[in-house]
Amino acid sequence: MTRGLRRSFDVLVVGGGPAGLAASVRAAECGLRVGLVDDNPSLGGQIWRGETTQGGSDAAGWVERSSVVGVQALSGTRVFHYPAPGTLLAESEDEVYELSFQKLVLATGARERFLPFPGWTLPNVMGAGGLQALVKSGLPINGKRVLVAGTGPLLVAVAAWLRRQGANVLAICEQASWFSLARFGAALLHHPQKLGQALSLRGQLAGVRFLTSCWPMAAQGSDKLEAVVLSRGERVVCDFLACGFHLVPNTELAQLVGCQTRGGCVQVDEFQQTSCAGVFSAGEPTGIGGVELSVVEGQIAGLAAAGRRQEAVRHFQQRKKVQGFAKALDRAFGLRQELRTIARPETIVCRCEDIAYHHLAEHKSWRVAKLQTRCGMGPCQGRICGPATEFLFHWNPDSVRPPIFPAQLEHLAWIGCSGECGAG
Amino acid sequence: MSKAAYEVVIVGAGIVGAACADEFARRGLQVLVMERDALASGATAAGMGHIVVMDDSEAQFALTRYSQRLWQELQPELPDNVEYEQCGTIWIAADEEEMEEVLRKHESYGKGGVPTEVCSAQRLKHLEPNLRDGMTGGLLVPEDGVLYPPSAAWFLIGRAQQHGAQLRLGASVVEIGQGRVRLRDGSEIRGDIIVNATGASAPELTPGLEVKSRKGHLVITDRYPGFLRHQLVELGYLKSAHSVSSDSVAFNVQPRRTGQILIGSSRQFGVEHKEVDQVILARMLERAQQYMPTLRGMLAVRTWTGFRAATPDKLPLIGSWPGDKSLFLATGHEGLGITTSLGTARILVDQIMATEPEIPIEPYLPSRTAKAYLRA
After folding, report:
1. How many domains does chain B have?
2. Residue B270: its pLDDT value, please?
3. pTM score
4. Is B39 an interface residue toward A (CB < 8 Å)?
5. B376 at the A interface (CB within 8 A)?
6. Which of A5, A345, B200, B339 could disulfide-link to B309, CB 3.0 to 4.6 Å?
7. Whether residue A71 sits in one domain with residue A19
8. Shared-domain flag, residues B132 and B182
9. How many Å is the Cα radius of gyration of chain B?
């Protein structure tokens, strides 16, 4: 039987990546009771995964600060429901948490975008970040032939990291054109830190082919990946394909709470406050912008949530500066039209429900396609096929309903603890 | 102002509108179906999708039995994605009082020619091992079934279109009657017969209609093939149905072909908003766990709500609306719209084309509820 636990905070932060850590630290430094809930086993989010124990890193610095100032971290705990104003429900493996708050900061990060192409569901075809996470948790990669493909700066970072782990990185295929990347490179001149990172990564990838205007056309193999056919006609024999098409903001919780979104991003004002009073959002949910922007936005959100608006204002200048980088990202890594045509009629688009492209193409909207085919109705709740169909068919995503992640039935049935908090 | 004329204009493309369109079109009438939203996107999309025989009244029994037979006849033609499964219903008796109801139902169904099997506690446990111990027994109705309603409506509309019916989606109708349908943009369409098949929204187009929205919640789980074999319904609802409180929950679960389990049910009057109500959701899931304790650790992947079209006497409104020769109703099906859609379409067409209906139609005629309205 599940234990039910109740926690009450002045400021509750959802998401333990750079934005969430920064927000929780700044709010706690104001003397408030701050909770930080995150579904990963340890803090740091996707981008800082595994770095929080490396002394001297930014990641370690923020995690240490959070513990010094008394942020109450609930790791391995996933928020799945917003049952009533001022309350979220979250679950860990065997506990359900009723988290009440005065102010809420949503720093729910982003996920990789996947686009369907023939063979993309074969074993060993993975997201770039997904493969990195698997290697971090023990998948042997030493000496394996890895092709990295898709779009976005994550590809280069993951390729360099995989190489450091001993992978034989065969090539990086970036769908953006050389011209877009050159313009992006020029934009980096305004962000010396980013430029330094980029040059350093380039150095680590010496000898690895970097192909622009190039994307995967098909993954081949009988029971697992054996080769990838590229848009330039070349067939690359490999063990793994690490493939992601940039990032998609995670806005499900924001939508469930009632925050307005536009173009897939949570709308915020200059204090990172959403359309819902007392609910703030920082980092990737407000637009893909990278670590630096996430940290600044997180700090502004944390301070503003703590009522320290004047202190928050001091970070505006810095935010403005890194926002330029976010815009450059958007420009450089926009998806090209040809990517709409790589799926074949029989290519699976929704992996949860096994729905092929041609079953979807006959419908006019996401909602009708969902109703008639159950596309997006599986355990991933459309997190993978939703962004794909948005790109492929220009469909608008649907409204969000609880639970935002599959949750144990008993936890979904939680109605709070009256008197004794124990069995559900 | 554009005017077009049809023999029949059906407003509402849920399962009832779709079934009517199919029936009218196959009998050679010129049909237009108008839907403000997407096809089968209202109660049809939200409902559980059972094809059940119910006997709250003689008339309910007649219509559900008749309709179930029509579904059975249609089965060979239904495409695979309709997922029609004759899984059977088991009415669960948790105590002796409910077991008496099992016996009553057994007799009543038997008289009507519906085979049933009275199950002992042991037999029940054998049929559904995941029910908690200590149930008194149950009644198996083997001919009951489940299907996926949006695909069924899609099929019926498709067949209607093959017989010449036309479909207009996104057409917002604001007024009907006297042989006309008026749209929000001011345009009008003429029809010899107008059918209001807009479910719980029906009173918006036909003021005075005694149809109320009755909100329901549903939950669907991840895939657990083999966990559940039949549709299960508690008989305890008979007691709660007589309670004064308008909000009620009952244990009702269905196996889907995917291995998912659909969990209901709740009933609320006077709630207009679509949002999930945590208190009623929790009560509903609590009830389900009382009957099937191992549900508690299963993953719920989605919850949603829908609105049933409820009438005071729990019978649908099928037939002409007094005072307007052109206007016919096909609404008020409460939780039985999927089952009774086919029977509804048949007896509506029988009325219009003056053919002999296979079951007595009087209990469903709208005139039974319209009297009070017309007097006023």
Report:
1. 2
2. 87
3. 0.92
4. yes
5. no
6. B200
7. yes
8. no
9. 20
Cβ B41–A410 below 8 Å, yes or no? Answer: no
Using the predicted structure, report yes or no on whether residue B241 has a pLDDT greater than 60: no
Contact call for A365 and B38, based on CB within 8 A: yes
Instruction: Flag whether residue B304 sits within 8 Å of chain A, measured between CB atoms.
Output: yes
- Please judge whether A378 and B276 are an interchain contact, meaning their C-beta atoms are less than 8 angstroms apart: no
Give the minimum alpha-carbon distance from A316 to chain B in angstroms, rounded to a whole number. Answer: 37
Residue A181 CA to residue A175 CA, distance in Å, equals: 10
- In tens, the pLDDT along B49-81 reads 999 999 999 999 999 999 999 999 999 999 999
Instruction: Check residue A249 and give its pLDDT.
Output: 96
Nearest-Cα distance to chain A for B151, in Å, is 6
Query: Are residues A311 and A389 both part of a single domain?
Result: no
What pLDDT shows up at residue A191?
A: 80
Inter-chain touch B221–A378, beta carbons under 8 Å: no
User: Is 50 exceeded by the pLDDT of residue B376?
Assistant: no
Q: State what percent of residues in chain B have pLDDT above 90.
A: 91
Whether residues A106 and A119 share a domain: the answer is no
What does the pLDDT read at residue B3? 57
In chain A, the residue whose alpha carbon lies closest to the alpha carbon of B154 is A372
Q: What is the pLDDT, as a whole number, of residue A418?
A: 42
Q: Which of B29, B348, B341 is nearest to B164 (CA)?
A: B29
> Of B293, B310, B327, which residue is a domain's last?
B310
Residues 6+ apart with CB under 8 A from B221: A409, B260, B261, B263, B295, B298, B299, B300, B301
- Does residue A198 share a domain with residue A167? yes
The CA angle B200-B203-B204, to the nearest 5 degrees, is 100
Whether residue A372 and residue B154 make contact (CB cut-off 8 A), yes or no, is: yes
Alpha-carbon span B23 to B14, nearest angstrom = 14
Residues of chain A with pLDDT under 70: 1-2, 416-424
| B-chain residues near A81 (CB < 8 A) | 278
Q: Are residues A222 and A121 in the same domain?
A: yes
Q: Which of A84, A379, A401 sits opposite B278 (nearest CB)?
A: A84
Query: Is B19 part of the contact surface with chain A (CB cutoff 8 Å)?
Result: no
Average pLDDT value for chain B: 94
Q: Is B4 on the interface with A (CB under 8 A)?
A: no
**For residue A83, what are the domain limits?**
4-111+248-330
Angle, in degrees to the nearest 10, between helices B337-353 and B15-26: 30
Of B256, B278, B310, the one marking the end of a domain is B310
Give yes or no: residues B112 and B135 share one domain.
yes
- Domain span at residue B105 reads 87-142+212-310
Instruction: Answer yes or no: do A367 and B41 touch at CB < 8 A.
Output: yes
pLDDT in tens, A2-45: 678 999 999 999 999 999 999 999 999 999 999 999 999 989 88
Q: Do A412 and B276 touch (CB under 8 A)?
A: no
From chain B, the residues in CB contact with A98 under 8 A are none
Structure-block tokens of residue A95: 């506990």
Residues in chain B: 376
Q: How far apart are CA B271 and CA A158, in angstroms?
A: 51
| Whole-number Å distance between alpha carbons of A194 and A81 | 37
B263 and B234 share one domain: yes
Is there a single domain that holds both residue A129 and residue A225?
A: yes
Q: Do B268 and B224 share a structural domain?
A: yes
With respect to residue B155, please indicate whether it lies within any of the assigned structural domains.
Answer: yes
Q: In this complex, do A409 and B219 lie within 8 Å of one another by their Cβ atoms?
A: yes
Instruction: For A256, name the nearest residue in chain B, comparing CA atoms only.
Output: B275
CB-based contact, A341 to chain B, within 8 Å: no
Cβ within 8 Å, pair A377-B279: no
Task: Calculate mean pLDDT across residues B147-160.
Answer: 97
> Is the ipTM above a cut-off of 0.95?
no
The answer on A150 and A127 residing in a single domain is yes
Please state the domain count of chain A. Answer: 3
State residue A204's pLDDT score. 86
Contact A105, A88 (CB under 8 A): no
Kindly determine whether residue B40 and residue A408, on different chains, have CB atoms separated by under 8 Å: no
pLDDT computed for residue B370 by the predictor: 59
Please check whether residue A415 touches B, CB under 8 A: yes
Local confidence band at B11 (pLDDT 50, 70, 90 cut-offs) = very high
Whether residue A74 is found in the same domain as residue A223: no
pLDDT recorded at residue B318: 98
